[in-house]
């Protein structure tokens, strides 16, 4: 009895592998984001009028299926790379310009400089006017 189920599962897996041969078939960052969007829209759709939530949720899920079954591997990979770069830029934007550096200006020539955060008081020499001053970073 158990042997029959293993044979059926093996046959199903072979058919699935044959179907997915040459397709993108990756659960990359865009697909994960779209699946999260789909799940959120399925939860929130009750409060969105005129079935707009359902339509948007189905569109997000259809896009996941389209990307997953696409035979255009390189364009899908490039889309994912651009999406991850955009996400990184958004994280940097909301984290602020001074993620790991402290920015300040020279008191003499107003040249903008930077120093790593968390170093305490450091002695800084301006590259423009060679003024030395102490700054807490």
What's the layout of helices and strands?
Elements: H1 2-20, H2 29-44, H3 52-69, H4 73-95, E1 101-105, E2 112-116, E3 121-125, E4 132-136
Antiparallel strand pairs: 1-2, 3-4
Helix pairs in contact: 2-3
* Head-to-tail CA distance between termini: 71 Å
Order of helical and strand elements: HHHHEEEE
Average pLDDT confidence is: 91
The general outline is: elongated
Compute the number of structural domains: 2
- What is the rounded Rg? 27 Å
Tell me the total number of β-strands: 4
Helical residue percent band: 55-70%
| Strand order, largest beta sheet | 1-2
Low-confidence stretches: none
Number of helices: 4
Q: How much of the residues is beta strand, in percent? A: 5-15%
Organism: Enterococcus malodoratus ATCC 43197
Keywords: Membrane, Transmembrane, Transmembrane helix
Protein name: Zn-finger containing protein
């Amino acid at each position: 009895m158990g042997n029959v189920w293993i044979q059926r599962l093996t046959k199903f897996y072979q058919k699935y592998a044959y179907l997915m041969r040459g397709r993108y078939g990756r659960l990359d960052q865009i697909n994960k984001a779209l699946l999260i969007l789909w799940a959120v829209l399925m939860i929130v759709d009750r409060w969105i009028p005129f079935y707009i939530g359902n339509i948007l949720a189905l569109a997000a899920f259809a896009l996941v299926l389209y990307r997953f079954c696409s035979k255009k591997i390189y364009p899908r990979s490039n889309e994912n790379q651009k999406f991850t770069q955009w996400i990184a830029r958004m994280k940097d934007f909301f984290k602020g310009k001074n993620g790991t550096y402290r920015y300040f200006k020279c008191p003499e020539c107003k040249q903008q400089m930077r120093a790593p955060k968390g170093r305490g008081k450091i002695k800084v020499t301006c590259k423009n006017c060679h003024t030395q001053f102490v700054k807490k970073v």
